[in-house]
């Protein structure tokens, strides 16, 4: 059974919301043909949160890599690199740039177990 992952990567920009949206809206490095070749499933959402002094931009991706956890780790590193590149385009918080979380999804059975001890 293929393993599904959830990946989140965020950067805190010290710029107006409109500028951050304009910078982060393009499709980026993910070409559709490449996604189809490497992933069984891919869902990508972008979120922007306005704070008093900054804008928090977050990519949320759920995916099932064809090559397992190694491709999942490579995907996380590529997304971190992308966020660091974006942070060079607008002022950003160095301590809150390309902060990511990669989690493997465990399917919970009806008896509320995951099959792991």
Averaged pLDDT = 89
- How are helices and strands ordered from N to C? EHHEEHE
Poorly predicted runs:
none
Biggest pleated-sheet summary = 4 strands, antiparallel
What's the gyration radius in Å? 16 Å
Going across the major beta sheet, what is the strand order? 2-3-1-4
Beta-strand residue fraction: 25-35%
Structural class: alpha+beta
Query: What is the share of helical residues?
Result: 25-40%
Number of helices: 3
Blueprint of the fold:
Elements: E1 5-13, H1 17-24, H2 32-38, E2 39-50, E3 55-65, H3 69-87, E4 99-104
Antiparallel strand pairs: 1-3, 1-4, 2-3
Question: Please, could you describe this protein's structure?
Answer:
The structure is a single chain. With 117 residues, the protein is of the alpha+beta class. The chain has three helices and four strands, in the order E-H-H-E-E-H-E. The protein has helices at 17-24, 32-38, 69-87, and strands at residues 5-13, 39-50, 55-65, 99-104. The chain has a four-stranded antiparallel β-sheet with strand order 2-3-1-4. The chain is elongated.
